[in-house]
Amino acid sequence: MIEKILIANRGEIAIRVIKTCQALGIKSVAVQSYLDMKKIVEVALKSGADAIHPGYGFLSENADFADLCEKRKLNFIGPSGKSMRLCGDKMLCKDAMAKAKVPTVPGSPGIVEEVEEALDIAHKIGYPVLLKSVFGGGGRGIRLVHDEKELRQAFDLASGESKAAFGKSALFVEKYLPKIRHIEFQLARDTHGNTVHIFERECSIQRRHQKLIEMSPSPVVDQKTRDEIGQLAVEAAVAVDYRNAGTAEFLRLDDGTFYFIEINARLQVEHPVTELVSGLDLVKLQIDIANGKEIPFKQKDLKVNGCAIECRINAEDTFLDFAPSTGPISDVKIPSGPGVRVDTYLFPGCTVSPYYDSLMGKLITWGKSFEESRERMRIALSDFYIEGVETSIPLYKTIIDSKEFIKGDLSTDFLDRFKILDRLREDITREISEKTDAALAAGIIHSEFLKNKIKTQHDHGIGWKTQLGMT
What we know:
- The structure is a single chain.
- The chain is of the alpha+beta class.
- The chain folds into three domains: 4-77, Rossmann fold, CATH 3.40.50.20; 106-175, Dna Ligase, domain 1; 181-424, ATP-grasp fold, B domain (D-amino Acid Aminotransferase, Chain A, domain 1, 2-Layer Sandwich), CATH 3.30.470.
- It has 15 helices and 21 strands.
- The protein has helices at 11-24, 37-47, 63-71, 81-88, 90-99, 115-125, 148-166, 223-239, 271-278, 282-290, 370-383, 393-401, 403-407, 414-417, 420-467, and strands at residues 4-7, 27-30, 51-53, 75-76, 129-133, 142-145, 171-175, 181-189, 195-207, 210-216, 244-252, 258-264, 307-314, 316-317, 323-324, 327-328, 331-333, 340-344, 351-352, 359-367, 385-387.
- It has an eight-stranded antiparallel sheet, with helices on both faces. It has a four-stranded parallel sheet with strand order 2-1-3-4, sandwiched between helices. The chain has a three-stranded antiparallel sheet with strand order 6-5-7, covered by helices on one side.
- Strand 11 (244-252) and strand 12 form a beta hairpin.
- Helix 3 (63-71) packs antiparallel against helix 4 (81-88), helix 11 runs antiparallel to helix 12 (393-401) and helix 12 crosses helix 15 (420-467).
- The radius of gyration is 27 Å and the shape is globular.
- The model is unreliable at 464-468 (pLDDT under 50).
């Protein structure tokens, strides 16, 4: 059984894992370096740790690291290196899904070596198409092209990007699907072959292919659809012999068609929304599975309870194309209240580093209904105060109050389709105007108060002087 866990990560996820370790009576070790695999393993062994939790990002999807942990007799809390390689190679994973009869997005059956081959495939499936790196993720290595000329130009660029980001060029062509939703299913599979999905998460509101707001349940997934697509997610996990917690990601078209796109072989940033609607601690579930325990519930035991929404609190300037904003945090006020959860590393005096991801924390709200959760989010965003860097909070206020979000009219092009940044500018201008008007009104009231006070004092002075015959 695991007695001590080294957490090979930083920030809010490190704190999140530590909290579960404390609840389970498991000792934990934090480190400052997250990328040197050999050094991390040596530190783990010297500290007496018998397991490593990689969090997300960094080494969490590094198959070589999982193999190294296994070789050095350290329990890697995640999938095996073999399974991770299969999930990480999009073409191998797509092939496995085809054999398991899990529907995938139309595109090239394998890696595309030459631009002429890419042109043939694009002609067959129709423009526009996406050029993707086999080893991409988080929005990296993706280029949208609309015609043959663009495809020829983009092929060399995409190949170069792939080499720069992943060390090698391996591209494939995929049909571009307009106005799609990004919906994922939380998975868990133990070493005994028990596999469950823990509902879906709606992740459609994005910028540059990276998620901003997530929620569970999705407004377009009823129980019948949840059962059907959830079963596809389970079959996908079985197809790659997955173990531990992971996520099966899908694209949903307007007509209700779902296409599998990938398995994320790790705990997701947005896992708290699943925890709030399921009542489960997913980090505990990860540790239990790593300990060889069976999942303690069946699919039929799981029921969606209420609605949860998450906003990723990023240090970035929305109006500078979401450029990172870094520096010291002079003050911070964390919202609280019924149904409000904040996972963050922020405190007054901390520093947002330019060397890591811009994510500072996650604001999550839960309610018995979508509207209750949304209203709690609206209030919590107004209560969240961070001084020192630009944040994504104003953007979320605009989105949360938009009629399209309230109606559930979501898609991955939500920001562009509804001109959300233009609305944000209007909201900010109006807020500044209202604050200026309020300040002006307060100044006038205060001025009138002082004038009246002086006049009253003057009148009183005249009164007693008159009575004493001093005027």
